[in-house]
Write a structure and sequence with these properties.
Two copies of one chain form a homodimer. Chain A is an all-alpha fold. Chain A is about 70% helix and about 0% strand. The first copy, chain A, has a domain at about 60-185: Orthogonal Bundle (Tetracycline Repressor, domain 2). The first copy, chain A, is elongated, with a radius of gyration of 19 Å. Chain A binds a DNA duplex (30 and 30 nucleotides) through helix 3. Chains A, B: InterPro entries: DNA-bd_HTH_TetR-type_CS, Homeodomain-like_sf, HTH_TetR, Tet_transcr_reg_TetR-rel_C_sf, TetR_C.
DNA sequence: CTGTTTATTGACCGTTCGGTCCATAACGCC
DNA sequence: GGCGTTATGGACCGAACGGTCAATAAACAG
């Protein structure tokens, strides 16, 4: 019935996410986005309402990909013992070679305080990650060591460690130092 | 010999820091800064070279005040045992009632990657905080538990926890949950 | 082929951005 | 009181911002 869209909207969104991730919301200009997405202005505004809605869609994409991957890993009994899944996830942060940090964490700092919809998405992702850490703990050999309350708190502590690692990774901390932090955090679990 | 400046430059800078802290570098407009500093455009540009130099000066101010205060607390033998000084510092984050997070952490995420001078200041502050945590550990009753290397790593781990707490605090985590994270982090030290 | 619908492109819009400039004001010095 | 110097306030600047629009193109239905 009508002319079909010539670009893959998810692929374009992925590139947009890269720009927001690297530069933050305000510093990412329309020009930056258009170049990365390889489309023209008009096409962008046919596909998205405005800049903010691209950002929100990018957050959702991050949720569906990175966060979901992490949650799956933590919750998958076939990925080893609960504790070793946690370790695997944290070591993934350690190995983020381009040190981009965490889009979720960036959003929490630069937009969540001024945009309620960003705040809601950020909070939801954080709570899902926390819950996944808790699931992994519950499925570890040492699960018996923690009461339900204590397990929730421990999961939250690990999540806190995870966020810290993301910040330090973005700040250029070397792999070896990140590894030592992971070891210290998990030492007594 | 000449007309004296009518505003207190440090006080104005403190207000500018508040704006950058709350909104980030790009989102803080000249108008925002001028309103907060309560001066006119011309006066601002007599006192500072440009927007970026205000930001750098604000970072230095944060260093001289907040970071230095933290370092002093951690290093002060009269502030209790090393471990309890660490706990006091972390509980200060927990009690940050307006949940502003950490200007250092914000800068690490939103500007350090695109501005080498910001990056240098951020790295310097981070390393000083790390070192102060190490000092506090060294001066704790249980100092003997750690080799020098292990102490450095543990200090870095605590610093990582500190940064995570700052992010979570800015994200609105309730005091009680932050407290549980602190307890979990320090439990086995 | 014609008509309808929607995507593409880039010129164009008003606004806001960071930064400059200048007339005026407030000081110490002589 | 004049003079040199620096601060003040705000008009002003070009550039860049996010967003709109109209002409054109590409698809399908009839």
């Amino acid at each position: 019935m009508a002319r079909p869209r010539e670009f893959d909207i998810d692929e374009a969104l992925d590139h947009a996410m890269g720009v927001f991730w690297a530069k933050g919301y305000e510093a990412a200009s329309l020009q930056d986005l258009l170049s990365a997405m390889k489309i023209a202005r008009g096409s962008l505004y046919k596909a998205f309402k405005d800049k903010r809605s691209i950002y929100l869609a990018a957050l959702d994409l991050y949720d569906k990909t990175t966060v979901e991957t992490g949650v799956s890993l933590l919750s998958d009994p076939e990925a080893g013992d609960g504790l070793s899944r946690i370790r695997t996830l944290l070591e993934g942060v350690r190995d983020d070679e381009d040190r981009r940090g965490c889009f979720l964490c960036n959003a929490a700092i630069d937009q969540a305080r001024v945009d309620p919809e960003v705040e809601a998405r950020v909070a939801a992702m954080m709570r899902r990650l926390e819950a996944a850490f808790s699931t992994a703990l519950k499925q570890s050999k040492r699960a018996g060591r923690w009461s339900a309350k204590r397990r929730t708190e421990t999961a939250r502590f690990i999540f806190n460690t995870y966020m810290g690692l993301r910040v330090l990774a973005r700040s250029g901390y070397p792999t070896r130092e990140l590894q030592a932090i992971i070891d210290a955090a998990l030492r007594d679990l």
